[in-house]
Amino acid sequence: MKRKLLLIMLLLGVVLKGYGQIRISGVVTDAADGSTLPGVTIRVKDTTQGTTTDIDGRYQITAAQDAILVFTFIGMTPKEVPVEGRTVINVSLSSDITTLQEVVFIGYGTGTRQDLTAPITTVRAEEISRQTTANPAQALQGKVAGLQVTNRGEPGSEPQIRIRGISTVFAAGGGPLYVVDGVIVDNINFLNNNDIESITVLKDASAGAIYGVQAANGVILVTTKEGKKGDTQVNFSTYTGFQHATNILEMSNTEQYIELLNQRTGLTGSGNFFDPEDFPHSTNWYQELTRPALITSHELSISGGTDNSSYSYGIGYFHQDGILNTNNPENNNNFNRLNFRAKSDYYFNNIDLGYNLIFSRNNTVPAYNYSLYQAFVAPPAFTARQDNDEWTDPTALGFSGPFANPVASAYYHDVVNDEYRLIPSAYLSATIMEYLTFRSSISARLAFGQGKSFNPTYYVSGLQNNTTTSLNKNNNFNRNLQFDNTLEYRRLFDSHNVRLMVGSSVQEYFSNFLNANAFNVPDLSSETQYISLGDDTGRNASDGGTKTRVLSFFSRASYSFESKYLMTATIRADGSSKYNDPWGIFPSLGLGWVISQEDFMPDTRFVNYLKLRGSWGQLGNNNVPANSALIVGSPGPGTTGIFGSDNPIPGLTFQTVYNNFLIWETLEEFNVGVEVFSFEERLSFEVDLYNRITNNAVFFAPIPGVAGTSELLGNNGKIRNRGIDLSLGWSDRNTSRDLTWSLTGNFSTVDNEVLEIRNESGVIFGALTNGQFLTRTMVGYPVGAFFGYNVTGVFQNLGEINGYTSPNGVVLQPDAIPGDFKYENINNDDRIDDADRVMLGSPIPKFTYGFTANVTWRQWDAVATFQGVYGNMVYNAKRTIRNVFPDANYDLDFYENHWTGSGSTNSYPSAALTRRNIFPNSFFLESGSYFRIRNIQIGYTLPENVRNNLRVRSMRVYFSAQNPITLFGYNGYTPEIGGSPIATGIDNDTYPLSATYTMGINVNF
Amino acid sequence: MKNIKTKIFAFFVMLFVMGFTLVSCDDFLDLPLEGQLPADYEKEPTAEEGFRYVSAVYGGLRNWGISVFPYIGMFEITSDDADKGSTPDDSPSMIELNNYTFTPENDLFLSFWNDHYSVIGRANFAINTLLELNFEDEDIRNPLVAEARFLRAFLFLRLNLAFGGVPIVETTLTADEFARIPRSSKEEIYDFIEQDLLFAIEHLPATYPFSEAGRATEGAARALLARAYMYQDKWADVKFQTDEIINSNTYTLYPSFYQLFRMVGQNSSESVFELQLTSRDQGRYRCEYGFVQGPRNNFARLQGWGFNVPSQGLIDFFDSRDDEIRKFATILPRGFRTPEGDSINANCPNPYYNYKVYTQLKYNSVDYALDHNIRYIRYAEVLLMNAEASIHAGGDAATPLNLVRQRAGLDPIGAPTLEDVWDERRAELAMEKHRYFDLIRTNRATQVMGPRGWQAGKHEVFPIPQSQIDLSDGVLIQNPGY
Description:
The structure holds 2 protein chains of 2 kinds. Chain A is mostly beta strands. In chain A, 8% of the residues lie in helices and 48% in strands. In chain A, helix 6 (369-377) packs antiparallel against helix 7. The longest helix of chain A has 15 residues, at 2-16. Among the domains of chain B are: 47-204 and 443-472, Serine Threonine Protein Phosphatase 5, Tetratricopeptide repeat (Alpha Horseshoe); 291-358, no CATH class. In chain B, the strands form 3 sheets. A two-stranded antiparallel sheet of chain B has the order 1-3. Chain B has a two-stranded antiparallel sheet with strand order 2-6. Chains A and B meet through strand 22, strand 26, strand 27, strand 28 and strand 32 of A and helix 1, helix 2, helix 3, helix 6 and helix 7 of B.
């Protein structure tokens, strides 16, 4: 019927054409999704004539043939359309919320992107939810310039995140501050990817300064989804797939292994000769210990809202099996998460209030990583079980080294960790007077953890057995209370936009733990795993706790004139109970100039928007252990004397050194940036240059043994990180072909250098390997730089050894045998000693990069993310273990390239990889660069007619591949090696990488 | 109107809330540490309470670097009496000690160094805290301080032998101090040890009740001081101190040399200073001194790592003098069944193990030899020091020497020579970590160990650990030759 009417009107239009006034009709749609828009105002320009669209988005209007129609709708960019004699004019309106006007969370408030004076990057919901990672932090890899994410493969593991290099060297303090809906949390492992509305990264000191003492390593602000005005929306998402181990390092087989051992014995005269005939088996231990593993996730959320309220509820379940195969259904390596969130807001005249509640339970049956290490070292020459199904004893085979049966160790590992988290928060926001808003929020973060570790009785070998069962239980609780109050004044005077905020924040953190263990606990089932069922003797318990408080006052003033000149200033005073001198003050200032708003700038499509900004700020770091002066305590069996054969008397002694007075670790940063949008905002470009300096860096450093303790916390240095963060994006659409696409990339460099070390030797030593410090943190070098001998070749024969002399003719390596490394005599003296150790490389990448491609074509969409790092070094410590495991297996690369006799190679040593060959040296340092396809997802959204038939609002099915391909040259399982800042990139790691393939579906009712 | 009232009310609420947070900031931030005792805990302690500071020092003696691997390696595997043991390639650090190819990077030296200084730190903390506390009576304080000073001297003597002159630490060091302490000379360390031990001798009791066996006595302090004098060739002083011990009539030789090293021989009449080891509470206090020397790949709970095994030279030495009782009690061959009925597997990788740490299966509830006390000072050693001193400084060397020989079933010697005493020491104290430094102090090292690679002018002392030299920024000077 309607169609007929339209046809009539169309005909009428043709008829009326000659009269000047014509009747025009059409449909107004939303450019984003093609849905019709009711209530759009249509005016005939320069007249009083007007109408609005009906419920189906249709309109009719009469106007002159040469008139101009103006379409306006709240939240959409107005559009002027010349009639030019047409009678049907269909119009699509686009949202006027451009990138520049997006709301950005800036901590204790929001701003728009165009008003920012600091480098702040926002990652949108889709970029997180379209990745099948266990938690949203892992999904940030490759998404933000200046943000380096190091993921580990184990289920439930937390990634290591570093923003703009290593600015603090204290191990636990290297990570950013996480703030979820205003609540400070210690990680975001308890959230689902679909819970995220946005993640905002405050990169520099001026942005983070509002968080003062806690923000030294950057801030990650997480906003969870909230209800939107409108009908109740029910969303169900689910995916299921599998993971499989990739990039497994190939090891030598038994034949190759015995060949290497025999070569070793022949060269050194130490060790045994083996006959390959005696060892018919060749086991690939990784094959025994890995499996394809299930991953699955289900989430249901309900949200909606009215004028006076909004709500959003979600519940999710995530399950991930580990790729470690324990071969034991009782302790299957896996991670489970159940979470629930509820968020409600109520709006009254002058008052808004609301609450947010997040609950989660994380249950982990961790992998016994040491069994993977054992798999790496174990000789391939035996099978896990003998023919009679008993475990094989690897120590009975005649190989030197404390070998264990890796399959047995995984089998008997019985550990379960459970963690419950509850994060309730509530706020009240009142408009007290015009322009003046008061907001108060109170929140708590409660976490309760329970761990159980049971050691059953078994016998594999003399070294690998347990004769008495033991049970260890661990309960821990922590609580963080936070009470924030802010008062904000916002006013627009003509072209002057003024905002002023003052506030205070009080936090108290408390944690404690209770640990108990007992022996001879009956090994029947988990129901009998109770301390009280074990022996009375030998039971013991320990506990401990910490409490810290932070009290802060802060203020932020921002001012902009005509959105052209921008200024933001903050100041924060923080008091922390951790420091002897508790108060610190942290100011910041940011300035911006939107050049494109100036009259002298021509209005060209090459530059739609151009902003220049500069900022400076200071931050503190209280992510250090509570200041410890001399502590007295009774730490346990090691300080208990025994008398009269077996009578223990507990001792009392000190645990650290006197007068360890800590002052604030502060960070100061300058940042200069340019933001450009071109070609109708299709091209976006942002570049930042930063220079951040950490003063009084607090960290543990080894100290001389004469002090009685081996390391000490102190204000030990000054570190500089500087670099460039660059983001470039292009997004475009071809309406006629129903195609939209975008390409965004980021690139960042870090130049890390130690400017000052405040101890006697000017060096902070890091990792100790084979009796020598491998890493040093010293002036002029990056934090934790690798130091060792420079290998200039391999001695091919005795003549070369005797011919390698100092200028004075002294033979430099008289102990060497052919096939050993030849070390460079740096100082040209008569010996190779510690003075010849030089800087060999840095564990910090020269640059990191990531790029994402998005394509949507009709019902199809595809996204791919690529990511990588370049220029960092990894120390292959796994190859240097032969002083502990003399007959450990060799990796295949080594077998294929090793020195086998004069002239065979000048880069790889012989199989006798012991003695001075395993001193820290350049051979073991390899490139840690890698390139990864982080994620590929292809989705299909069901067309309208199918949706209508199914009675769903929208439905999308997809296939996703997470980490399908990682490319690297390094001889290890993964080049992503974390560690404490002063000892990072040292690879003892043997947990393989995995790729995840999933199919999923999202339905919206 | 109502609206304005509401606003004013709200404003005051806000002021109140913000004011509340301002109240007494500094009190709010002044938090004591959770779960830690303040340093001035126990103002007026009893003797038992005061003893807890000393007990922590004793607890430290069981450390790996003090009584286990590094100690066994540096003090015995280096000598001609012992071979490294275990499988041929096992523990390259131990191999280096066995064939004198060790360098400053050898991790055993570092472990030895750090553990000794760590426990010296505990002793210093005990001494200085005990001196500050208010005791009811000096007679309570002084014996406790004396005990801690004895232990400190015990540890410094070890360091002095191993490295020859080390940094003296006698307070709990502050952050400004610890990197700047240079090495003292060997002589200065000996003086420091002497001061500690003279104080200890003055204040330590002669004996303790059996339940406190293992605590330092006056006799232990004198014996340790005699040892320190012996290494300095101060023979008159050795003679005086050992005479004092002998004349106190506190000690007698245990009749059976074999049983002396079994469970029944623990804390016997011959025990002068004995570190108490126990497997109680499932090995909670474990010290693996005996375990690492246990027969390798033997039967469950009768096996250890198989390190530090008697050398063929030692066996030949026993045979050459028909020293049957002590040979039997020192050398545990594989394929052997002990009188207690325990078997040593004939397939163990080494022909012999250290019998002196053998512990009967029935006592090994957790692991091998965890209950085997370390007989750090025996009366037999006192007698032999007395004999050696008598030859040097004048006196009756035969009587003390022959007491020891008699128990070993050997004929007395009428006029013993120095060589007789040295041989007696080798036989009596074999596998008890005396041999290496005995050879050095009696200038026989080149003759005995030279063929195996020992170098005079270098191997008299071990190198200072490289990491400690690095950390000291040149304050610590390496020993010559390393």
